[in-house]
Design brief:
Layout lengths: L2 E5 L8 E6 L13 H13 L9 E5 L5 E6 L7 H17 L4 E5 L7 H15 L21 E5 L5 H22 L7 H15 L2 E5 L1 H7 L2 H7 L7 E7 L8 E6 L1 E5 L19 H16 L5 E11 L11 E3 L5 E3 L7 H16 L3 E6 L4 H6 L4 E5 L2 H14 L3 E3 L4 H4 L9 E2 L7 H10 L7 E5 L22 H9 L2
Parallel strand pairs: 1-6, 2-4, 2-5, 5-6, 9-11, 9-14, 10-11, 13-17, 14-18, 15-16
Antiparallel strand pairs: 3-4, 7-8, 8-11, 12-13, 15-18
Helix pairs in contact: 2-3, 3-4, 4-8, 5-8, 7-9, 8-14, 9-13, 11-14
This protein binds ligand BES, manganese (II) ion and zinc ion.
Ligand BES binds next to loops.
């Protein structure tokens, strides 16, 4: 874990100095940097190797500090996301050096230093993320020793913002860790175990429903999807109660499908290993609770639910044509066992809405391949039944560097889910697949304000960004944290 600190003394304690350079009209300048940087900048500029283009990085060596890393900002005044991207670019360069203790100098021209320092720290930490648990020796491309300490140097008062950024970045790393675990390393019980840890560390209330409880409550979606699996299902419910009386309640629900083979409607073999990521919604929700547990917001109660199971074929598995009964009594004709996410989410949503009477529900799910057809890997699909809350979640995501795009709902789509033999069917023909899945979920939230994020395209292979390495992105954690902080 990289230790992060801040300073306003102007002293540089790291052996490596990070400087951020704007591409100005009259040549490159490094205001506020030590003289060694000016020299290095002159050389870099004269050689033509460094033009301070956005994301450009130049590493030089000097007597003191030993290593100088110049990071280009481009010509414009950088704002929020620009600082995350600059941090990510710096991280990539740092990992290729032997830097251990790094001082990042926030330039004096920054208008909002606390905001910039926080985004920069986020970008640096998220960009340094690696998952090496199952690998033997050190990575030959990244020389040991690893980065151990990061000091952010800037004006007085940046400390709290940087500390909050560190909390978020560590939570995102935690979500990525859960997702990077293989299907045999992260089972439904692992969600329960992690929730137990969070509950103990931060004094949250925890309830874990097992198969018996699900049967008793009539959660036919979770029970049905789980039928082909040897791993018992879990419904994890983690509750944070705010100090303030009459605080509104936010319910978070995250899809925790720890491996999705498709079930009897089996997926093609090629790429199926990626379906270990089908739990990224659940991971995002638990990671957001890690932040909630640490920050203990005064103005909002937060309840997190993760329905968790595998979806596998087997002699007891759900079959196409089977009819199940969801929590609350609605029956569903299961046309395709690979549209399992909506079945487990429906039980959790219906149960959560009834039990916690939330003022807002936000759910995150790697729900449909169709959202990748619609939006690619650059934005999540956002759907909901309440314009104001949809806008607030869109805005939170935009601030966090996790953009979403709203898609419509409506009775014409709902009609496509009519079944001849049950209340609903779980799929229709392929058209508007993301909307149909959301329309299915909508049946289970009633009139409660609800926002759904389909993160199938962004939970991994998320749009190319310097601070998002290959593999799971942790998408959604920062949107949720931004939203919660806005209450
Ligand atoms: N987990 C998948 C959705 C998915 C697909 C996520 C690709 C990430 C990448 C989901 O359970 C699923 O299989 N959905 C089906 C629905 C279809 C059968 C209506 C899909 O998208 O193909
Ligand atoms: Mn599926
Ligand atoms: Zn799935």
């Amino acid at each position: 874990m990289i230790a992060v600190s801040t300073t306003s003394s102007g002293k540089i304690s790291g052996e490596t100095l990070l400087c951020f350079i704007r591409a100005g009209e009259g040549g490159l300048e490094a205001p506020g940097c030590p003289p060694a940087v000016d020299k290095c900048l002159r050389q870099a500029g004269e050689s033509g190797d460094f033009k301070a283009r956005k994301g450009q990085v130049y590493v030089a060596y000097a007597p003191e500090p030993r290593r100088i890393v110049l990071v280009g900002l481009g010509p414009d005044e950088p704002v929020g996301e620009d600082w995350r991207l600059a941090g990510g670019s710096a991280a990539a360069a740092l990992l290729k050096t032997g830097a251990v203790k790094v001082t990042a100098l926030l330039p004096p021209f920054v208008a909002e230093p606390a905001v910039a320092a926080a985004a920069l720290s986020e970008g640096l930490l998220l960009g340094c993320y690696r998952f090496t648990k199952y690998q033997g020796g050190p990575d030959p491309e990244e020389p040991a020793p690893a980065l151990a300490a990061l000091e952010v140097s800037g004006p007085r008062g940046i400390g709290p913002a940087v500390r909050r950024a560190v909390v978020v970045a560590r939570a995102v790393a935690g979500a990525r860790d859960m997702a990077n675990e293989p299907g045999n390393g992260w089972t439904p019980e692992e969600f329960a175990r992690r929730a137990r840890e969070l509950a103990a560390e931060h004094g949250l209330r925890l309830k874990v429903l097992d198969l018996k409880a699900m049967r008793r409550l009539g959660m036919g979606g979770l029970v049905g999807v789980n039928q082909g699996s040897a791993q018992p299902p879990r419904l994890v419910i983690l509750e944070y109660r705010a100090a303030a009386q009459k605080a509104p309640t936010l319910l978070l629900v995250g899809k925790g499908l720890t491996f999705d083979s498709g079930g009897i409607s089996l997926k093609p073999g090629s790429g199926m290993e990626e379906m270990k990521y089908d739990m990224c919604g659940g991971a995002a929700v638990l990671a957001a609770m890690e932040v909630v547990g640490q920050e203990k917001p005064r103005g909002v109660n937060v309840v997190a639910m993760v329905p968790a199971t595998e979806n596998l074929p087997g002699p007891a598995a759900l079959k196409p044509g089977d009819i199940i009964k969801q929590y609350g009594g609605k029956t569903v004709e299961v046309i395709n066992t690979d549209a399992e996410g909506r079945l487990i989410m429906a039980d959790a949503l219906a149960y959560g809405v009834e039990k916690f009477r939330p003022d807002l529900v936000v759910d995150l799910a790697t729900l449909t391949g169709a959202v990748i057809i619609a939006l690619g890997h650059h934005r999540a699909g956002l759907l909901g039944n309440d314009d104001q809350w949809c806008d607030r979640v869109l805005a939170a995501g935009a601030r966090a560097g996790e953009p979403s795009w709203r898609l419509p709902l409506g009775p014409e789509y709902r009609k496509q889910l009519k079944s001849r033999v049950a209340d609903l069917k779980n799929v229709d023909k392929r058209d508007a697949g993301t909307i149909l899945a959301a329309a299915f979920l909508q049946e289970f939230v009633g009139d409660t304000p609800w926002v759904h994020l389909d993160i199938a395209g962004t939970a991994w292979n998320f749009t190319e960004k310097s601070y998002v390495p290959k593999g799971p992105s942790g998408f959604g954690v920062r949107t949720l944290v931004e939203l919660i902080r806005s209450f």
